[in-house]
Amino acid sequence: MFGKAIVRGLLRNIVLFVALTAYTFTAQAVDIEFVTVGDPGNVGELSGGGAGGSGVDRICGAVDHVYQIGKYEIKTETVARIWGFSYPSRA
Predict the structure, then answer these.
(1) Of 79 and 49, more confident
(2) What is the pLDDT, as a whole number, of residue 20?
(3) How far apart (Å, rounded) are the C-alpha atoms in residues 37 and 69?
(4) 8 A C-beta contact, residue 66 and residue 38
(5) What would the pLDDT profile of 10-45 be if each residue is shown by its tens digit?
(6) pTM of the prediction?
(7) Domain boundaries of the chain, sorted by first residue
C-alpha cells in the first residue's frame, strides 16, 4: 500500500494541476465582436449562369431567421495561440 507521505504528495500534485489548469483556461479573456444578420423572409437572389455568371443556378442570400456571426475571421492558429497550444506553420 501507499504510505501517507506518498498519498499526500499525490493529492498535492493533483490539486496544483487542477488549480493551474483552471487558471490557464480562465486567465485568457477574448472579446469577439458579432454582427446581426437579419431580414427574415429575404428570398435571396439568383446566382449562376442564369444570372449572367457561371456555374449552376441557385438562390443565394436567403435568410429565414435572425442570427449573429463573428465580424472578423478567426483562424485556427489564433485560437491555438490564445489557448497556448503550438500549431504547425503553413509557411
Answers:
(1) 49
(2) 65
(3) 7
(4) yes
(5) 777 777 777 666 655 555 567 889 999 887 888 888
(6) 0.41
(7) 37-70
At 52, list the grid cell.
449572367
- Sign, CA torsion 21/27/29/30: negative
Q: Residue 76: what residue type? A: T
Q: Are 47 and 59 in contact (CB under 8 A)?
A: yes
User: How many Å apart are CA 68 and CA 64, to the nearest integer?
Assistant: 13
Cβ-count burial 56-75 (b if 16+ within 10 Å, e if not): eeeeeeeeeeeeeeeeeeee
- Please give the torsion angle defined by the CA atoms of residues 20, 24, 27 and 29, in that order, rounded to the nearest 10 degrees: -160
pLDDT at 3 over 80: no
Contact of 34 with 66, CB cutoff 8 Å: no
Confidence of residue 54 (pLDDT cuts 50, 70, 90): confident
Residues 6+ apart with CB under 8 A from 47: 53, 55, 57, 58, 59, 60
